[in-house]
């Protein structure tokens, strides 16, 4: 089986001096290599082709055959790395916390492995008969949520 660290190293080498970042590398037992990259402004197919060629030229099919797929992290798929959180600050996201509760709101900040989502929540205010809809900040840790993903809007 092809070593994941070798493929990661090749991808990191290709990424040098580029604004792309590595999201994930997966290698199945039958040597299917799947590489996901991302960029703040989206991923160009030409760059996926260039990366694919770079990896193919660096690995020897005669020693070990493989299948290679290079693409972008899917829009609407859960975030896998901190850079994805940074790219979506100010955008609508959905968070499923560790307890299984969903939150939808605006990703309002990222600090290391922590992030904040501003949601609309009904809050009971003193002197008011009915709860009032207000912005409330919810704080999360990236490794303590089941997922966070960008909410695609067609408005």
Key traits:
single chain, 155 residues, alpha+beta, 5-stranded antiparallel beta sheet, 3-stranded mixed beta sheet, 3 helices, 8 strands, elongated
What oligomeric state best describes the polypeptide chains here? single chain
**Which residue ranges are poorly predicted, with pLDDT under 50 across at least 5 consecutive positions?**
none
Strand order of the largest sheet: 7-6-5-4-8
Distance between the termini: 46 Å
* Main beta sheet strand tally, sense and closure: 5 strands, antiparallel
Structural class: alpha+beta
Q: Helix and strand string, N-terminal first?
A: HEEHEHEEEEE
Strand percentage, roughly?
A: 35-45%
The helical percent reads 10-25%
| Overall pLDDT score | 93
Number of E strands: 8
Alpha plus pi helix count: 3
Radius of gyration: 20 Å
Shape: elongated
Topology:
Elements: H1 4-15, E1 21-27, E2 32-38, H2 45-58, E3 67-72, H3 82-87, E4 92-97, E5 102-111, E6 114-123, E7 132-141, E8 145-150
Parallel strand pairs: 2-3
Antiparallel strand pairs: 1-2, 4-5, 4-8, 5-6, 6-7
Helix pairs in contact: 1-2
